[in-house]
Design brief:
Layout lengths: L2 H45 L5 H11 L8 H11 L3 H26 L3 H24 L3 H31 L1
Helix pairs in contact: 1-4, 2-3, 4-5, 5-6
Length: 173
């Protein structure tokens, strides 16, 4: 191999690594953002402990200019708020914290290009696809479609990365 072709090959490998790292960091950022949003929702649940959730829900609907007498979903929301207990709020906050920790760990691993995080992203993405597909089938909205398509894109990208790593390992041995 000539020196020029060797340099070009190294340059191509460096460019590919840069693209791979940028894509992984984009996925990591998404996972970190999801973890942060759910963590904030968990803190919101904690803030409702020892409060009348019905009053808080009613105030929220009033703030959003939603009339519970005209919107069935608003009445469902109020009924859910009425059934909240402090124990349920703490359980929701605990679930939110657990979910957030998992997303933060996954985000960290992807940001630092760890292969275990790629596997984790692949598996966790696959777990959500049937639920997201069900939501699209149940009620097709642009948001449901976007969530499904982004998740499918991430799953396929993680499959591509894992297959590429397997191919490189076979060529290296």
């Amino acid at each position: 191999m000539t020196k020029i072709s060797s340099v070009l090959l190294e340059h191509a490998k460096a460019a590919e690594h840069h693209r791979r790292a940028a894509a992984l960091r984009a996925v990591a950022s998404l996972e970190l953002a999801k973890g942060l949003v759910v963590l904030l929702l968990g803190f919101g649940a904690i803030s409702l402990v020892h409060k009348d959730a019905w009053d808080v829900a009613e105030a929220l609907l009033h703030f959003l200019h939603v009339n519970p007498d005209r919107h069935h979903s608003a009445q469902v929301f109020l009924n859910l708020a009425d059934n909240l207990t402090d124990r349920k709020l703490w359980a929701m906050a605990g679930g939110a914290a657990t979910y957030s920790i998992i997303r933060f760990i996954e985000g960290y691993g992807l940001w630092h290009e760890r292969s275990w995080a790629e596997w984790f992203a692949l598996i966790s993405g696959l777990v959500y696809v049937p639920f997201e597909a069900y939501e699209v089938a149940r009620r097709s909205t642009p948001i449901h479609w976007a969530v499904l398509l982004v998740n499918i894109g991430i799953v396929f990208y993680m499959i591509y990365l894992r297959l590429s790593a397997h191919k490189e390992a076979k060529l290296g041995s």
